[in-house]
Design goal:
13 helices; Alkaline Phosphatase, subunit A; alpha/beta; two-stranded parallel ribbon
């Protein structure tokens, strides 16, 4: 077993070395990487009719939805929202005749075990049946006049980006920063999922029977004021994260989040999403540590950094809830305007000449997409999400068909700044160089 591990490790090193040699010339042009992490949209939900992309016209047999028994439905399940006509045909449908881009649709279940059932081994045919919002899972927008589409037309759109792990925002945020799930081995029994003999969910929970936190759970360091029982919060995490790797190379970095200053100061906005702050789970970034003060910042700090032209080489940005396009509490239009303003300010700054902006979505939000995700491991990847690559070094008017997940973001950062991979997932991930000139 040790000999096999040694050979596998050598292969990993050789693979990473070859990847670095291939990618480095394109990456050397980049002085700053800004990752904008939006919320809960599948690719087909926003870009299903984008010209030249792998969109709804290619859906084929993935479009008709089946029930849990595998029988094709005669119509989509009823949507509780009375704005929608009932019954709707068993097919993808345009939401905009019912709800405009400025309007709000209901949230849709997006959890670890449920998404695996929806994907149904790659058939992509049980999104409506397993959804708690009925046929709404099959809806899409056509924001052809949006900043998103304008930027995608001007720069590069990726149509093969998959969120890294099955399920929701919490788990995919952890994969974005450590290519892993957070550990909670002694979680209270009431939050641990129960599986049947076949390994299927018998009772849902925040934590797998093996002690991995997979559904929304907040950190012992940053949580709602009323959450006062430490045993019911995710304990301090001590595995390596991308910030550690950058620190080791003396590369400055920051996580910027809308509403963070108020939340960490004890007076959060009611819409602040604690589980969207992955670095706040780590012991080396706990309140009062130098790491927290140096690296965990508010969106206002990002605004100031752009205005001053002093953004750190690696930056992550989490827009505040009303601007992240999450169904339920946000809409398409407000987040679109917010992103457009951010890019406009960057373009007007001295940072623009060497900045690569990566815009993607943390997960699909329970919304259907017709492309079956590739098979990587037991964690995922999950359903396809939008990806935009923006900057002066990006190929103009380009559609990138390369298969990526969030490990590709980490790999791009690692290769550019000479940082070591966190584990085999990001070490083997394809860096985002195909869209670079």
């Amino acid at each position: 077993m040790k000999a096999f591990a040694a050979v596998a490790g050598l292969a990993l090193v050789l693979s990473a070395g070859a990847q670095a040699r291939t990618a480095q010339p394109a990456l050397n042009k980049i002085g700053h990487i800004l990752v904008v992490f939006e919320e809960n949209r599948s690719f087909d939900n926003l870009f299903g009719h984008f010209p030249g992309a792998n969109g709804l016209d290619n859906a084929g047999q993935a479009a008709p939805q089946t029930g849990r028994d595998g029988v094709v439905l005669t119509a989509l399940p009823t949507i509780a929202d009375k704005r929608f006509a009932a019954p709707l045909p068993n097919a993808p449908f345009n939401i905009e005749p019912f709800v405009p881009e400025t309007g709000f649709t209901s949230d849709i279940v997006h959890r670890f075990y449920q998404e695996q059932g929806q994907i149904d081994g790659g058939k992509m045919d049980r999104f409506a049946a397993i959804s708690d919002a009925g046929g709404l899972a099959m809806g899409y927008f056509e924001p052809k006049d949006s900043r998103l589409w304008k930027l995608a037309r001007e720069f590069a759109l990726g149509d093969a980006m998959f969120h890294s792990a099955f399920g929701g925002s919490f788990l995919n945020h952890s994969f974005l920063v450590c290519s892993c799930a957070f550990r909670w081995p002694n979680a209270p029994e009431k939050v641990v999922a129960k599986l049947d003999a076949a390994g299927h969910m018998a009772a849902d929970g925040k934590v797998t029977p093996d002690g991995d936190a997979v559904n929304t759970a907040r950190s012992v360091y940053l949580h709602m004021p009323e959450e006062t029982a430490p045993a019911e919060l995710v304990p301090p995490q001590t595995m390596a994260h991308i910030g550690d790797r950058l620190d080791a190379k003396h590369v400055d970095w920051a996580w910027y989040a809308g509403g963070y200053a108020d939340a960490s100061g004890g007076h959060p906005d009611k819409l602040f999403q604690y589980h969207h702050q992955p670095f706040a789970y780590f012991a080396d970034l706990a309140p009062g540590t130098p790491g927290q003060e140096m690296h965990l910042k508010d969106a206002k700090d990002l605004d100031a950094a752009i205005a001053a032209g002093k953004l750190p080489p690696v930056a992550f940005y989490k827009p505040f809830a009303t601007f992240n396009q999450h169904p339920g509490y946000a809409n398409i239009a407000d987040g679109d305007a917010h992103l457009g303003d951010l890019i406009a300010r960057l373009r007007a700054s001295k940072l623009w000449k060497d900045t690569l902006v990566i815009v993607t979505y943390d997960e699909n939000g329970g919304q259907w997409d017709h492309v079956a995700p590739p098979q990587r491991d037991a964690w995922g990847p999950g359903t396809r999400v939008p990806l935009l690559l923006i900057g002066p070094m990006v190929k103009p008017h380009f559609i990138d068909h390369t298969s990526y997940d969030f490990g590709s973001i980490l790999r791009t950062i690692e290769l550019r700044f000479g940082a070591e991979p966190l584990n085999a997932r990001d070490a083997k991930a394809t860096p985002m160089t195909a869209a670079l000139q």
